[in-house]
Amino acid sequence: MKVLVAVKRVIDYNVKIRVKADHSDVDLTNVKMAMNPFCEIAVEEAVRLKEKGVATEVVAVTVGPKAAQEQLRTALALGADRAVHIETDARVESLAAAKLLAKVVEAEQPGLVILGKQAIDTDNNQTGQMLAALAGLPQGTFASEVVVENDKVQVTREIDGGLQTVELTLPAVITTDLRLNEPRYAKLPDIMKAKKKPLDVKSPAELGVEVESRLTLLKVESPAERKGGIKVGSVDELVDKLKNEAKVL
Amino acid sequence: MSVLVLAEHHDGVLVGATAHVVAAAKAIGGDIDVLVAGENVGAVAEAAAKLDGVSKVRVADNGVYAHQLAEPLGALLVELAGDYSHVLAAASTTGKNVLPRVAALKDVSQISEIVEVVDADTFKRPIYAGNAIATVKSADSLKVITVRSTGFDAVGESGNAAIESVDTIVENSQSTFLKQELAQSDRPELAAAKVVISGGRGMGSGENFTLLEGIADKLGAAIGASRAAVDAGFVPNDMQVGQTGKIVAPELYIAVGISGAIQHLAGMKDAKVIVAINKDEEAPIFQVADYGLVGDLFELLPELESKL
Known about the structure:
CATH superfamily of chain A: HUPs
CATH topology of chain A: Rossmann fold
Number of helices of chain B: 8
CATH superfamily of the largest domain in chain B: HUPs
Number of helices of chain A: 7
Oligomer: heterodimer
CATH class of chain A: Alpha Beta
Largest sheet of chain A: 9 strands, mixed
Strand order of the largest sheet of chain A: 9-8-7-10-6-1-4-5-11
CATH class of the largest domain in chain B: Alpha Beta
Distance between the termini of chain A: 58 Å
Shape of chain B: globular
Mean pLDDT of chain A: 96
Helix content of chain B: 10-25%
Number of domains of chain B: 2
Radius of gyration of chain B: 20 Å
Strand content of chain B: 25-35%
Largest interface: A-B, 79 and 89 residues
Order of helices and strands of chain A: EEEHEHEHEHEEEEHEHEEH
């Protein structure tokens, strides 16, 4: 079974972001970029499926600018066999990304598609669900455990209040939650070998997908700053402040 | 203009988040219908009919909608969406699971976790873990939106909407519900609690979370946790507050032994009053806390409990 895994290049999760002075967007110039943490978990799961003999080939795919090939090389260093880059400098919203990925699914015919549950830049949590809908596949979102058995997959999902387990027919789309696994680090020899692995570049036009969105970003602002608080010296003082000053007790 | 709100329910009970989503629907304007889909959901429909501002409750009561699996529920919403200009759901795991599916099948964008309605086409939503607020305008004929419940005050319960049944039954051969394990709790629901007390890695162990329980009981508070505490196995993951867990905005949030990483702050920095208890006075949590108390939580928590 072939496993397709989608990765996204995003701002590194430790970076404190800045809003541009003209409020057009977040300032990404000279900011450290990395693979979205949920995508790392997706790659790890795909590689583990290969190590277990469930997956025969792992294909990594991304949508984004030329620089996003760094993240594909990372996925290759972590164990993916080859990569597909859909190159565009446009701002690609989830719907367009899902349409592009659906074309790759159609061409590659994977048994399983794994994505992260959300990207930490747009915080949308949409692409996997949209891809499943467009490709006509069932979805196992927010997965914390994935078990492939014959022509089915059992997915344990993190839902509000606990865990839910569903069984899906294959092929299926899975999105990863944080607790699915602990991603490994790429080793230096693997990083060197990854440079020789195949990486195909395609354009949205070649795939026949219009990436333009009917969603316009009008403005990006910083959230309201919280006023600096005070440190209290004792529990008594804290309780007093909460009762008489903040009036929340 | 007309809005369809997907009701959120568990175990035959309407979840509080639905009243917040109806409030967002009122801010958009037009008639508001609520869809209750599930199995044996008569009581849920009656509770939804009481929400202020609701014109009509539409009930799809059938085994195929049990557990609100994304495939059948998405297909049902796609069938019904043609009658509406907006489809809304809470930004809960159910809403997030289903609505993007509906949007894609209707070939429109989905707008996630709005916190403000500017007008019927324009919405505000947090991005980058809440470190920026984006204003987005949709030119789609159908707007499919999830609503962050902490952004809207719940509507009242003095309404009396009509209830009608929806006969649409969709097929689902792709997904099957196997089992569910829900954490048992007598405390208020984390996302809706007026007071939340959370523990982090500094709690040291799961047993030590009992130190929070006495205080939570006295304050009627829900107990939360940071991701560090969840990953360390101290508490189950549905207690996690943060970018990847639950978003809370209580009157009072007490963070105990939590350093205050941006991913955690994303889940609680809209609380009205934040209290931090931490032994490290340089911890970033003190930059957002209204009241900070530096010291050993194992001494301070029992003292706090005794003085409440």
